[in-house]
Amino acid sequence: MNAPDRYERFVVPEGTKKVSYERDTKIINAASFTVEREDHTVGNILRMQLHRDDNVLFAGYKLPHPLQYKILVRIHTTSQSSPMQAYNQAINDLDKELDHLKNSFEAELARFQRSF
Amino acid sequence: MDGVSYQRFPRVKIRELRDDCAKFELRDTDASIANALRRVMIAEVPTIAIDLVEIEVNSSVLNDEFIAHRLGLIPLTSERAMGMRFSRDCDACDGDGQCEYCSVEFHLRAKCRDDQTLDVTSKDLVSSDHSVVPVDYSDPSDYESSEQSRGIIIVKLRRGQELRLRAIARKGIGKDHAKWSPAATVTFMYEPDIHINEDMMESLTIEEKKQWVESSPTKVFDIDPVTQQVKVVDPELYTYDDEVIKKAEAMGKPGLVEIRAKEDSFIFTVESTGAIKASQLVLNAIDILKQKLDAVRLSEDTVEADDQFGELGAHMRGG
Ligand SMILES: [Zn+2]
């Protein structure tokens, strides 16, 4: 009866930002990103990609509550980088990886269908 | 300011491919990507499914909402779905969700006029769009079965009973309702890497070897009838159950076998409901995941607001 509407899980409410950024007040080069209407799918690939970055000292994400449809991504970097730079870099790298994956899959599909 | 790239270059090898099933190997990436693809295939690749039903006449034994629910679960061919609009974003029909950009109309009319039970099936649904029709599961190579194939049964009618309705099918995703999920099952497993310590294995009698081989619940190992050596028949049958390792320890031979999961190799099994081809399902999942990543990029105003904050911060630290 009081269950939230199903679309609440993936439609960003009007007037809400998809991604908001908040600097840590005590530690330099540390910040939290709040990503609305995303879950483990995006949270985990972002975290793992951030771990590949040598300038990232800490990267983690959490889904605070199953009925709060957002994730928090926390990044701490060295002074060589910044949380924002690392975040952008991770997205760019993942994007390129998926481009490559798509091309590989299409090429393999063509090869496989030819061989039959 | 641009950082170094930490991009990976995954490789793919297809093992089996049918319209409704694909099996492939994914290498040179990590479990987060494999799992993201699996999750997107199940819950976020769009398809088309019946979402609204207006019943004109229903004198069948099933009530209206029961029939509406059954209609929703019928898979419809959804090659169009990626290019379609979600009704909630459609500005051509403002909220009505019944225009050609965001919906497909279906009609169903059936009445039983004789003593034999009439099966009302997915084949009785008449679509307004020839590209969006109930999935046909009959085997095209099997002539006889396709003649007889009657689709998915919706309800059975006896003499005098009638069903007449209009249905609207819309684009949606599995996250909203499972009826929109194009995936019957999507699974992946780590590729196992099995090493037998040959010297230690040779110290076992043939009887001990047999006992050890049989301790595995799946047929991963076998004994060569000629050389009587233990060999790996199919590493992928290993379910990471640890039984052979425990058995080796119980036999006083720890380290007889070493089994490790390769952390960058995955074997995927993708089964489609028939709404989209299994190969297309994978490609659509990659596209959707790319779109999701694009949506979580920082917006221009967020970056600007922080730049100002940064200058202020530097000023304060300097002072
Ligand atoms: Zn519309």
From TrEMBL, chain A:
Q: Does the keyword Secreted apply?
A: no
| Assigned GO CC terms | RNA polymerase II, core complex
SUPFAM superfamilies under this entry?
RBP11-like subunits of RNA polymerase (SSF55257)
Q: What InterPro entries does its record include?
A: RBP11, RBP11-like, RBP11-like_dimer, RNA_pol_Rpb11_13-16kDa_CS, Rpo11-like
Q: Where in the cell is it found?
A: Nucleus
Q: Is Iron set as a keyword in this record?
A: no
Q: What sequence ranges are listed for the domain DNA-directed RNA polymerase RBP11-like dimerisation?
A: 31-103
Name the GO terms of the biological process aspect. Answer: transcription by RNA polymerase II
Name the keywords, alphabetized: Coiled coil, DNA-directed RNA polymerase, Nucleus, Transcription
The stretch of residues making up the signal peptide is none
Q: What is this protein called?
A: DNA-directed RNA polymerase RBP11-like dimerisation domain-containing protein
TrEMBL record, chain B:
| InterPro entries recorded | DNA-dir_RNA_pol_30-40kDasu_CS, DNA-dir_RNA_pol_insert, DNA-dir_RNA_pol_RpoA/D/Rpb3, RBP11-like, RNAP_Rpo3/Rpb3/RPAC1, RNApol_insert_sf, Rpo3/RPB3_RNA_Pol_subunit
User: Which of UniProt's keywords are assigned here?
Assistant: Acetylation, DNA-directed RNA polymerase, Nucleus, Transcription
- GO cellular component annotations of the record: RNA polymerase II, core complex; RNA polymerase IV complex; RNA polymerase V complex
What molecular function does GO assign, one term?
Answer: DNA-directed RNA polymerase activity
Q: What is its main location?
A: nucleus
Record bears the keyword Electron transport: no
For this protein, the record's Pfam families field holds:
RNA_pol_A_bac, RNA_pol_L
Q: Which PROSITE patterns match?
A: RNA_POL_D_30KD
Q: Where in the cell is it found?
A: Nucleus
User: Which residue intervals define the domain DNA-directed RNA polymerase RpoA/D/Rpb3-type in the entry?
Assistant: 21-299
Q: Which GO terms describe its biological process?
A: transcription by RNA polymerase II
> What SMART domains does the entry give?
RPOLD
Give the UniProt family note: Belongs to the archaeal Rpo3/eukaryotic RPB3 RNA polymerase subunit family.
Protein name (record): DNA-directed RNA polymerase RpoA/D/Rpb3-type domain-containing protein
